[in-house]
C-alpha cells in the first residue's frame, strides 16, 4: 500500500528504452558501475533527479545521483570506496577519485509512524528520515521533471507524476499543491527559477502564481543555504536568465532588498543595464571555462544598493571618502540578514567598490600604487562594466588600459584628470586610502 501523501495522485508510466533518448553513453561510467553493482546484488537501482532530467532535455548532467531500495549500510557493504554521510538523512557516497556518486535509499514524505519526520509549525520540513517505496520517493521530490527514474534493470524511464511529458513540453511543475510545497521549503521558489533558467523551461502557471506572494518566506530560509543557492543561480552560466526570472516572479527583492529598491528608484535604468552587463560577462566566462569569483559577482549584484547608500550618506553632508566607506559597510551588513556572504568574499567586494574612485587620480605615484593593488584587475574590470551605465567612464578606461602597459605614456596622453573639477580629489583620497584597508570592520 502506498504511504505517500494522498493529495498527490500518481500513476506509473513506463517509457521503454526505444521511446526515450537516454543512452548509457551519456551516463558517467562510474554511475553505471554503481547501478550495475547494486542491480547484480539484487537491489533496485535507478539514476534519478537532475541527471535524468538533463539527459532528457538534451543537456550534459553535472552530476549523477542514484536511488535504490538498498539501505545505506547495504550500499556500504557493496562498495569499498563508500562513506556514509548526513545526519538529517543518511546517504552513501561512492567515491571514484574526484567523482562522487551519491546513492540515496528511497524515502517517503509522510510520517507513517516508522520514521522520524518533523514538521515545523509553519509547515517547514525539518527532518525526513523515513524510508519508502520508489513511488514515495518520487512524490517527495520538488518538480515533476526531477522525479524521473532511469531503471538499470531494463533501461526504461519510470514516471509517477507526469514528469516525462513536462520535460517534453519544457515545463517546471511542482509536485502536489504548489503553495504547500513552497511553504515546506521556500528555497524551492529559487530552484523553480534557477532550473527553468538553466534549461530554458517555463514555470507552470500554477507553480508560478504563488511566487510573488510567498517571496517573503525566503527570509526564513537559512542565510548560508541562500548563499549557496545564489552561487548556483549566478555562477552556472545562466546568470542573466536567472536574474530576469527572479525579477519576473517577484523574488529579487526577497534576496537583495536594497539592490531591488535601488533598481526600482533608478528611472534611467542605468544601474540595471550595468548589472545585466556584469551578469552577461559572468555567463561568457563560464561558457569559456574561465574562473568566476563570488566577490566580483556580489560587487555587481549589490552595486545598486551601494550607489544608493552612498548618495544618501553624501546628501547627509558626509565627506565622500567617509561616505564610501560607510556605504560599503552598511550594504554588506544589511545584506547579511538574508544571504550569508562570507567575509573572504565581502572584503574583496568592498575593495572593488572603494577602488572605483581611485581611477580618477592620475598623479604618477598614485597611478603606480593603484596598478600594484592586488584588487586592481577586478576593480578595473568593474570600471569597464560601468561603461554600460554611463559613457563618462570612457576616458578613465582608456587611461588605465594604457597605464597597465606604460603608466608614463598614459599620464602624458591623458593630462585631463589633474586640475579642473578633480582638483580637490587628491586631498580626500589620501585619507581614504589609509582607511580603505580597514573597510569592512
Ligand atoms: P542541479 O544539480 O542541476 O542543480 P538537481 O535537480 O540535480 O539540479 P540537486 O540539488 O542536485 O538538484 O538535487 C537532486 C534532486 O533532489 C532533485 O532533482 C530533486 O529530485 C531532489 N531535490 C533537491 N532539492 C529538493 C527540495 N528542496 N525539495 C524536494 N526535492 C529536492
Ligand atoms: Mg544535481
UniProtKB/TrEMBL annotation:
<keyword id="KW-0694">RNA-binding</keyword>
<keyword id="KW-0507">mRNA processing</keyword>
<dbReference type="Pfam" id="PF12626">
    <property type="entry name" value="PolyA_pol_arg_C"/>
</dbReference>
<feature type="active site">
    <location>
        <position position="63"/>
    </location>
</feature>
<dbReference type="Pfam" id="PF01743">
    <property type="entry name" value="PolyA_pol"/>
</dbReference>
<dbReference type="GO" id="GO:0003723">
    <property type="term" value="F:RNA binding"/>
</dbReference>
<keyword id="KW-0804">Transcription</keyword>
<comment type="function">
    <text>Adds poly(A) tail to the 3' end of many RNAs, which usually targets these RNAs for decay. Plays a significant role in the global control of gene expression, through influencing the rate of transcript degradation, and in the general RNA quality control.</text>
</comment>
<dbReference type="InterPro" id="IPR032828">
    <property type="entry name" value="PolyA_RNA-bd"/>
</dbReference>
<feature type="compositionally biased region" description="Basic residues">
    <location>
        <begin position="427"/>
        <end position="441"/>
    </location>
</feature>
<feature type="domain" description="Polymerase A arginine-rich C-terminal">
    <location>
        <begin position="316"/>
        <end position="435"/>
    </location>
</feature>
<dbReference type="InterPro" id="IPR052191">
    <property type="entry name" value="tRNA_ntf/polyA_polymerase_I"/>
</dbReference>
<keyword id="KW-0808">Transferase</keyword>
<dbReference type="GO" id="GO:0043633">
    <property type="term" value="P:polyadenylation-dependent RNA catabolic process"/>
</dbReference>
<dbReference type="InterPro" id="IPR002646">
    <property type="entry name" value="PolA_pol_head_dom"/>
</dbReference>
<dbReference type="InterPro" id="IPR010206">
    <property type="entry name" value="PolA_pol_I"/>
</dbReference>
<keyword id="KW-0547">Nucleotide-binding</keyword>
<comment type="similarity">
    <text>Belongs to the tRNA nucleotidyltransferase/poly(A) polymerase family.</text>
</comment>
<feature type="domain" description="tRNA nucleotidyltransferase/poly(A) polymerase RNA and SrmB- binding">
    <location>
        <begin position="200"/>
        <end position="262"/>
    </location>
</feature>
<dbReference type="GO" id="GO:1990817">
    <property type="term" value="F:poly(A) RNA polymerase activity"/>
</dbReference>
<feature type="compositionally biased region" description="Low complexity">
    <location>
        <begin position="409"/>
        <end position="418"/>
    </location>
</feature>
<feature type="active site">
    <location>
        <position position="65"/>
    </location>
</feature>
<keyword id="KW-0548">Nucleotidyltransferase</keyword>
<feature type="domain" description="Poly A polymerase head">
    <location>
        <begin position="47"/>
        <end position="173"/>
    </location>
</feature>
<dbReference type="GO" id="GO:0005524">
    <property type="term" value="F:ATP binding"/>
</dbReference>
<protein>
    <recommendedName>
        <fullName>Poly(A) polymerase I</fullName>
        <ecNumber>2.7.7.19</ecNumber>
    </recommendedName>
</protein>
<dbReference type="Pfam" id="PF12627">
    <property type="entry name" value="PolyA_pol_RNAbd"/>
</dbReference>
<dbReference type="GO" id="GO:0006397">
    <property type="term" value="P:mRNA processing"/>
</dbReference>
<dbReference type="InterPro" id="IPR025866">
    <property type="entry name" value="PolyA_pol_arg_C_dom"/>
</dbReference>
<feature type="region of interest" description="Disordered">
    <location>
        <begin position="403"/>
        <end position="441"/>
    </location>
</feature>
<dbReference type="InterPro" id="IPR043519">
    <property type="entry name" value="NT_sf"/>
</dbReference>
<feature type="active site">
    <location>
        <position position="142"/>
    </location>
</feature>
<keyword id="KW-0067">ATP-binding</keyword>
Amino acid at each position: 500500500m502506498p504511504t505517500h501523501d494522498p493529495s498527490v495522485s500518481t500513476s506509473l508510466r513506463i517509457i521503454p528504452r526505444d521511446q526515450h533518448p537516454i543512452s548509457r553513453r551519456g551516463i558517467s561510467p562510474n554511475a553505471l558501475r554503481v547501478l550495475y553493482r547494486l542491480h547484480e546484488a539484487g537491489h533496485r537501482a535507478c539514476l534519478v533527479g537532475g541527471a535524468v532530467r538533463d539527459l532528457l532535455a538534451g543537456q550534459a548532467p553535472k552530476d549523477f545521483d542514484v536511488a535504490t531500495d538498498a539501505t545505506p549500510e547495504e550500499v556500504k557493504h557493496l562498495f569499498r570506496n563508500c562513506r556514509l554521510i548526513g545526519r538529517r538523512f543518511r546517504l552513501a557516497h561512492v567515491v571514484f577519485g574526484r567523482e562522487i556518486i551519491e546513492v540515496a535509499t528511497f524515502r517517503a514524505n509522510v510520517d507513517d509512524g516508522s520514521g522520524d519526520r518533523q514538521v515545523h509549525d509553519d509547515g517547514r520540513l525539518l527532518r525526513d528520515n523515513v524510508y519508502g517505496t520508489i513511488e514515495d520517493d518520487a512524490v517527495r521530490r520538488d518538480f515533476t521533471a526531477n522525479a524521473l527514474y532511469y531503471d538499470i534493470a531494463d533501461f526504461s524511464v519510470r514516471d509517477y507524476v507526469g514528469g516525462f511529458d513536462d520535460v517534453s513540453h519544457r515545463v517546471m511543475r511542482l509536485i502536489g499543491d504548489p503553495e504547500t510545497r513552497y511553504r515546506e521549503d521556500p528555497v524551492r521558489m529559487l530552484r523553480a527559477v534557477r532550473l527553468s533558467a538553466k534549461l530554458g523551461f517555463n514555470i507552470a502557471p500554477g507553480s508560478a502564481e504563488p511566487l510573488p506572494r510567498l517571496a517573503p518566506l525566503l527570509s526564513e530560509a537559512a542565510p548560508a543555504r541562500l548563499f549557496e543557492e545564489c552561487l548556483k543561480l549566478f555562477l552556472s552560466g545562466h546568470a542573466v536568465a536567472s536574474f530576469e526570472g527572479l525579477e519576473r516572479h517577484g523574488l529579487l527583492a526577497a534576496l537583495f532588498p536594497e539592490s531591488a529598491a535601488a533598481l526600482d528608484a533608478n528611472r534611467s535604468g542605468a544601474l540595471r543595464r550595468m548589472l545585466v552587463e556584469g551578469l552577461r560577462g559572468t555567463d561568457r566566462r563560464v561558457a569559456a571555462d574561465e574562473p568566476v569569483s563570488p566577490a566580483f559577482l556580489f560587487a555587481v549584484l549589490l552595486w545598486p544598493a551601494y550607489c544608493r547608500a552612498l548618495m544618501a550618506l553624501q546628501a547627509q553632508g558626509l565627506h565622500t571618502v567617509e561616505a564610501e566607506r560607510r556605504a560599503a559597510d552598511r550594504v554588506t551588513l544589511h545584506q547579511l540578514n538574508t544571504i550569508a556572504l562570507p567575509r573572504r568574499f565581502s572584503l574583496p567586494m568592498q575593495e572593488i567598490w572603494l577602488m572605483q574612485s581611485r581611477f580618477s587620480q592620475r598623479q604618477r605615484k598614485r597611478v603606480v600604487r593603484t596598478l600594484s593593488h592586488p584588487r586592481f584587475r577586478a576593480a578595473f574590470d568593474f570600471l569597464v562594466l560601468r561603461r554600460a551605465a554611463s559613457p563618462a567612464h570612457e576616458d578613465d578606461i582608456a587611461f588605465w588600459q594604457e597605464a597597465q602597459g606604460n603608466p608614463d605614456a598614459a599620464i602624458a596622453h591623458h593630462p585631463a584628470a589633474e586640475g579642473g573639477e578633480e582638483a580637490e580629489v587628491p586631498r580626500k583620497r589620501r585619507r581614504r586610502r589609509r582607511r580603505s584597508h580597514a573597510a569592512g570592520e
